[in-house]
Amino acid sequence: MLTPTRFSELVATLPYKKELPEAVYLHRETLQQTCPPLSEFVCAVAQALKLTDEEWHLVKLSKRDFRLSLLRYPTFFEEAYPSLTQSVTVDLAKLKQTVTRYKEHDNPPILHRKETMLVPDHPMAEQCRQITEEGELAGLYEQPRMIGFKQSWLRLIARHGYQLVDGRLFRQSALPEAADEPQIDRHKTALTRYQLSAPMKMLARHGYLNGDYSLFDYGCGRGDDLRELEAHGIAALGWDPNFRPDGELMPSQLVNLGYVINVIEDKDERTEALLKAWELTQTLLVVSAMLANDDFIAQFTPYRDGVVTSRNTFQKYYNQSELRGFIERALDEVPLAVGPGLFYVFKDKEEEQRFLSERQRRHHGWRQLSSPPLERISKQQHLLQTHCKLFEAFWQQTLSLGRLPASEEFEQMEELKQVIGSPTKALRLIETQEGKEQLEQARRERTEDLSVYLALTLFEKRRPYSRLNAQLKRDIKAFFGDYRSALEQSKELLYAIADQEQIEAACIEAHNNLPASLLHSGHSLILHKDYLQQLPALLRVYVGAATQLYGELEDIDLIKVHITSGKVSLMGYDDFEKPIPHLVERVKIKMAEQDVDFFDYVDEPKRPPLLNKSYLMAPDHPNAAKQRSLELRLGKLLGVDLSQDLNLSRIELQAKLKKFGKQVKGHRVCTVKT
């Protein structure tokens, strides 16, 4: 028989459990594997209550009281979010028990984050992690109080525009309507807004949903996205074979083929849908599809090159490289990855070049044009002072371009000519006061930006389009002389990313010049994504080529350049502003194979803490001194050098801190009061 004190000690040391403020939850199998003394005690309690193994599956253990509950979840492994059918709560101090049955309830409690209640190598742990990750990506866990019971959970799923099929979340607009499904009067819930789908959110992020572009949603389902876009005054139309078969197929600047090709079982018809969407596209086609790994796909009935769901619908799950290859073969165009399972294909090549060049362009806050002293000013200085705002605007635009702007590139050009005669005279006048250094720096950086952009277009084997947009033509003539010279220089830069010595030299240069970084000699360079555009051109191409395979860095915080292995790693943390953030996502991009591997740390106790964050913060950051002080104390306490690439799990860190009776609060290491 365990004492209350020993009971609490054992509960505190459990390595795998779902942790709540007052209690922890874990599966019976997990308890047996990780804590035999506590498992034997709980099983003895169950036997005393005459409960068989079929009558309890999970155990809830109180953190503070001598209390436990034996919970019956008969479909724990079969359902994504299983329902509780019975709870037997035992107050071990008072020897009292309470039985609550939910079998006949319409709204029983349900489980989330099942993977936290299993050991990491359990056969079902990975599938449970994927289920949790989908819910997080759909935004379902933003309000934890709303998800504890079945009906509120299902309503929350529906409000976000999703539906459960075989335990996976599908957007409702992508599913056929069941024959016996009642019609919903959506006009009665006008205040409820579905969230935009991932492709539409990406378009908004890149400025394409500003009202300047027409949009057609090919395979729009029930029109969830269209309603939201129309509410914002965006010209959006759609067609769907099931829900809007009479909709007219309209050529549009933007065409979205969102999660359509993965539900078409016939390969030829799948290609035909992609080609039809491309035919309607005037500027940009967005193609997206669901991704999944082989372990998840293996649980379903194979059919052709996909699987059949429980609703008798077809699903073709892709990986990133496979989806990219399908688009490229069907359209004979090079798609641009902007996210996992999400690609852009530009029909307007000038817009593609603008998009790509802007991705690689640095933006500066240049020093403002200062006013000359009032006394003893020349005629030219008087002109500068009188029209200071005009000359300031012209100077800023010149620095932004790295060269003299053309008439159409500066809105006040006519006014400038009236004041001084020509832009060349204006520049000479400004340089008498500002000097030539800023413009020379701007010219060097703009030349480098263009070299990086052109090198990356060569990496993706994009055709050297003869019809460049006007600004790029001016840039190439100003900085390279002609297009052939620009391509030759860019080709040399691209080929250099395969040279290990040059990569290592560039990493050393970056480490010496960046505001903050971690260099592991001969192995890797780690930096925050905010410093990406400050890297030497060679590393910008190296990382840029990798991110072209992955997509946007929206959820990524750190970039790791591997010097010898030809890889780039991307790391995303739960909250990088915390003193000790924890890793939730790691992406490894293998350049030689042009392949992308995703690693998710859904199990919170196993998330590695970032213990050397201060080395990745600029010295002028408000918390830089406090962060470094915290890490120096932690390093001394743990007996490790935190400037190294330390790999320590949250459990291991907590165990080490507990050993010394310490805990971390904010930026301080405190003694635990006993």
- The computed structural class is alpha+beta
What is the mean pLDDT?
A: 85
Give the proportion of residues in helices.
25-40%
Low-confidence stretches: 178-194, 365-377
Shape: globular
Number of helices: 22
Proportion of residues in β-strands: 15-25%
Gap between N and C termini, in Å?
Answer: 25 Å
Instruction: Profile the largest sheet.
Output: 6 strands, antiparallel
Overall strand count = 25
Lateral strand order in the biggest sheet? 1-2-3-4-5-6
For this structure, the quaternary state is: single chain
Rounded to an integer in angstroms, the radius of gyration calculated over CA atoms is: 30 Å
Structure notes:
The protein has 674 residues and is α+β, with helices and mostly antiparallel strands. 37% of the residues lie in helices and 18% in strands. The protein contains 22 helices and 25 strands. The protein has a six-stranded antiparallel sheet with strand order 1-2-3-4-5-6. A six-stranded mixed sheet has the order 10-9-11-12-17-16. Helix 8 packs across helix 10. The chain is globular and about 100 Å long. The two termini are 25 Å apart. InterPro entries: CHP04096 (IPR024019).
What is shown here, in short?
The chain is α+β, with helices and mostly antiparallel strands and 674 residues long.
Topology record:
Blueprint: H1 4-12, E1 18-19, E2 23-27, H2 28-34, H3 36-48, E3 58-62, E4 67-72, E5 86-91, E6 96-101, H4 125-137, H5 150-159, E7 162-165, E8 168-171, H6 198-205, E9 215-218, H7 224-231, E10 236-239, E11 252-258, H8 267-280, E12 281-288, H9 294-297, E13 301-303, E14 306-308, E15 314-315, H10 320-331, E16 336-339, E17 342-346, H11 349-359, H12 379-386, H13 388-401, H14 413-420, H15 423-434, H16 437-459, H17 470-479, H18 483-495, H19 500-513, E18 518-520, E19 524-528, H20 537-550, E20 558-562, E21 567-573, E22 583-590, E23 595-600, H21 624-638, H22 650-659, E24 662-665, E25 668-671
Helix pairs in contact: 2-3, 8-10, 13-16, 16-18, 16-20
